[in-house]
């Protein structure tokens, strides 16, 4: 019953508030002092439930949709939601790159990154994550549910457009898109084309939720003493939203390597400094890969690259081209 309520937006805080206010009124008819205690408890629980829900907000604004005749748009029905992909298909058997955008972005912002691969003969697949571009919003946004929907979307595309998936497949994720790609690496056997996976590009990646949780708590000015309680309620909502996947038991479960790690050749391109995520995320990825598969990682810090707003960047393209020529 509680899990069902947690999957619905705003319902649980509202129920807490209604029951609490009703209990306060009933207690007031018996003893005024008791009603004050119940009211204080009600407002506290309402506050905590509301704060926990704010961790699952979808983007409020969307970037303009991709509208280009050179790109083929496909709408997919995934878990009763519409997911949108765009693809550019070459005439011959070619490698494939799947490009996943970051938070509040969309396919339209990935065109510049795609151009390099088109010029080198790649099939290119772009996706709008849930709540982004033309893809339908979900009630509560989680990277796990979005990963599940990305997997289902790619599997549908593999079935309907098999010629899009050529000799090998690279996955390119920017920021949140890289966080999704880490999860795809973890859940790769759910992908029908997983045998094609041959490399990963992570640009200014998000690699864990620990720092994001702390940042959110700071932004909302949640007192330190309440943060463990908010975290427990957040994890319960996460697990209720992601039925069929591994339950979340601690924040480390959503940090690389437990969240996912790359095991094929990987190019890390990092804005230096990263004005949005800082250094913790790329340092985490470096630490994990250097401990397990150092020969697989190529890392490049770029002081002329910003985290956001870099739809076109010749220096980044040159780094990617050199890496592709070396690895493939």
CATH H-level homologous superfamily name of the largest domain: Alpha/Beta hydrolase fold, catalytic domain
Taken together, the total number of domains comes to 2
CA-based gyration radius: 22 Å
User: Quaternary arrangement of the chains shown?
Assistant: single chain
Average pLDDT confidence is 89
Q: Which descriptor suits the 3D outline?
A: elongated
Alpha-beta classification: alpha/beta
Beta fraction:
15-25%
Task: Give the low-confidence spans.
Answer: none
Q: Order the strands across the largest sheet as they lie in space.
A: 1-2-4-3-5-6-7-8
Number of strands: 8
CATH architecture of the largest domain: 3-Layer(aba) Sandwich
Give the helix tally: 10
What name does CATH use for the topology of the largest domain?
Answer: Rossmann fold
| Terminus-to-terminus distance | 52 Å
> Which sequence of SSEs, written as H and E, runs from N to C?
HHHEEEHEHEHEHHEHEH
Measured as a percent range, the helix fraction is: 40-55%
CATH top level of the largest domain is Alpha Beta
The main pleated sheet reads as: 8 strands, mixed
Describe the structure.
The protein is an alpha/beta fold. It has two domains: 2-56 and 222-241, no CATH class; 72-208 and 255-327, Rossmann fold (3-Layer(aba) Sandwich), CATH 3.40.50.1820. 41% of the residues lie in helices and 16% in strands. It has ten helices and eight strands. It has helices at 2-6, 11-28, 32-53, 111-119, 143-160, 176-186, 210-219, 227-241, 280-292, 314-327; strands spanning 72-78, 81-88, 96-100, 123-128, 169-174, 197-203, 266-271, 297-302. The protein has an eight-stranded mixed beta sheet, with helices on both faces. Strand 7 (266-271), helix 9 and strand 8 (297-302) form a beta-alpha-beta unit. The N and C termini lie far apart (52 Å). The model has no long low-confidence stretch (mean pLDDT 89).
